[in-house]
Amino acid sequence: MPPLYLTEARRLPVERQLRLTWTDGAVDTVDYDVLRGFCPCAVCQGHNASEIVFHPPQAAVEITAIQPVGNYGLSIVFSDGHGTGIYRFEFLREIAAGLPPDG
Residue 40 is part of which domain span? Predict the structure, then answer.
């Protein structure tokens, strides 16, 4: 199976969702608050987390910036100033499918 890549990540501000378009033709949407709650950074998940934990945001957040990280992930900055986590493509796909991410 060929590697999975994003071809587009588009903010949908009215819906407060991120639309993800994949090389396999799939299109997913994920709520901003879900993305923020599953932030993969060490502050949110710990340095040696074996299980990803959902931490609901304290208030509704917006996405203020999105940047690619190599050929494997995205850096997402939220309106609460949080933005150090790298969302691997596989991790985003799991979140979008409603699966608990495996870390």
Answer: 6-96
Taking the C-alpha atoms of residue 84 and residue 21, their distance in angstroms, rounded to an integer, is 23
Tens-of-pLDDT digits for all 103 residues of the chain? Answer: 678 899 999 999 999 999 999 999 999 999 999 999 999 988 888 877 678 889 999 999 999 999 999 999 999 999 999 999 999 999 999 999 987 676 5
Which CATH number goes with the domain that contains 75? 3.30.2020.30
Sheet holding 63-69, edge to edge: 63-69, 73-78, 86-88
Structure tokens at 87: 């969302």
Instruction: Tally the domains of the chain.
Output: 1
Q: What's the CA gap between 78 and 98, in Å, rounded?
A: 21
Q: Is 0.70 surpassed by the pTM of this model?
A: yes
- Of 64, 70, 62, 63, which is closest to residue 89 (Cα–Cα)? 70
Indicate whether 102 belongs to any domain.
Answer: no
